[in-house]
Design goal:
mainly alpha; 3 helices; single chain
């Protein structure tokens, strides 16, 4: 399957957005008083949000990587039409299939 340049750029934009949002959220949460106990240990509130951020950043990175690969493939071979990428050559008849 080949991605169009437009779809590839959309995936890259999503990755950048994901990184921006989640890094900003973690910076804001780490400054929140609910994130730290009186002994300065992290709370469950902080732990849950860090886990969500790590997972979301990982997914965003994977999506951005797919977009990057789509752009590289489009630059190398151009964008093929759907008919060209899904066309299947007719099967050759073998002596066993001839009746």
């Amino acid at each position: 399957m080949q991605l169009s340049r437009r779809a590839s750029w959309l995936l890259i934009a999503f990755a950048a957005w994901s990184w921006f949002i989640w890094v900003t959220l973690i910076k804001n949460i780490s400054a929140d008083s609910r994130s730290w106990s009186p002994t300065h240990a992290p709370t469950a509130f902080f732990g849950v949000h860090v886990a969500l951020a790590v997972i979301s950043i990982a997914f965003g990175s994977a999506i951005g990587w797919l977009g990057w690969r789509g752009l590289r493939a489009a630059a190398k071979g151009g964008n093929a039409t759907a008919a060209e990428t899904t066309a299947v050559a007719p099967a050759a008849k073998t002596p066993a299939s001839v009746e």
